[in-house]
Amino acid sequence: MVENERRFRDIRAYRVGWLLTIFDFLFAFPLLWIWQIRTTKGVKLDYLDDRKQIEADIKHGAFFMTNHRDIVMDAAWLSKLLRCRYFIRPFIGIGNNLFAYKWIEVLVRFNRCFVVKRGAGAHAQLKNSQLLSAYIRLLREQGKSIWLAQREGRAKDSNDLTQASVLHMLTLGNDEGTKGESFLENVKALNICPVSISYEYDPCDYLKAAEMQLKRDNPRWRKRPKDDVKSMHTGIRGYKGHVVYRLTPSINHELDALLTQHPEVREMPLHDQMEKVCAIIDNHIHRGYELFERGTEFDAYIESRLALIDIPNKDEAFLRERLYEMYRNPEINYHKAINERV
Question: What pLDDT is recorded for position 176?
């Protein structure tokens, strides 16, 4: 245990035991309840397909992989919902690019968050990924649950697609992790249970649209630390309407069926195997979306969000289309995923 603490010292969540439970019930849960009342019409935990199967899948710990809408609230509310219903308190992966101030890192690591190091050179990034993968593997071997987004950063256009590089990282902690069959076995050991997150309204939608134009106008544009702080503040305090978290079954059922029906998958190149796993995860997340009715007042909502954007050379036509696109893509992906299952 001491050796592991030394090895993972720079990235591990702090060991606080019963102090975390006290913090949850005295501070974290009351704050989340206040934010829920003030910024939503309700936060619901729901299920895709067979609830009993899902509850059996997560009983001994799971890797909850989700789409990513909000920097703070995505993981915070899921953690609360799982804690209250199943007494599951997942470890949460958070990028060090969000540590604009030192106290943020201390606070989140105290709250069962581990650090995903980003922004290093190629060699350093490989070592960081191997260390992170080994830490995640250790947590799963101990029966711990984990939350991680399906991609690095949020999908600005809400076109939620799992990044193969994330799956690749998750297998690097094992020396056999890049070899044929071992990749699929390592993925199965994680027990990935995808979760769909649906916000009726995204409080950061206008910030995301602005970022897309800034990136379009200047491909070298990069967010500053204070931009992430603003996104976190807006995401916490902004109005979201109805919020739905939908748990889905472990992907292991489909991986077992795939390997039984198509054993040749084991001989496929690693990239092709990763793409197949990504497609399974995406199908779970897309089918799990909650679709919201958009009446005629939605056009007025879009215009109100457009008015909040204050950037140089503001391209209203481009920004308006990006805002509509954010709310349209989940519907498109949902219907595509449903048709693929028919």
Answer: 43
Residue 120 has pLDDT above 90, yes or no: no
Closest CA to 100 of 208, 14, 224: 224
Confidence of residue 3 (pLDDT cuts 50, 70, 90): low
198 and 45 in contact (C-beta within 8 Å)?
no
**Are 202 and 240 contacting, i.e. CB atoms less than 8 angstroms apart?**
yes
Average pLDDT value for residue range 214-229: 91
Q: Which pLDDT score is estimated for 297? A: 94
Other CB atoms within a 10 A radius of the CB of residue 305 amount to 20
Q: Could you tell me which of 282, 84, 93 has the C-alpha nearest to residue 196?
A: 282
Closest CA to 13 of 137, 95, 112: 112
Q: Kindly list the domain boundaries of the chain, sorted by start residue.
A: 2-341
Q: At 313, list the tokens.
A: 């050379």
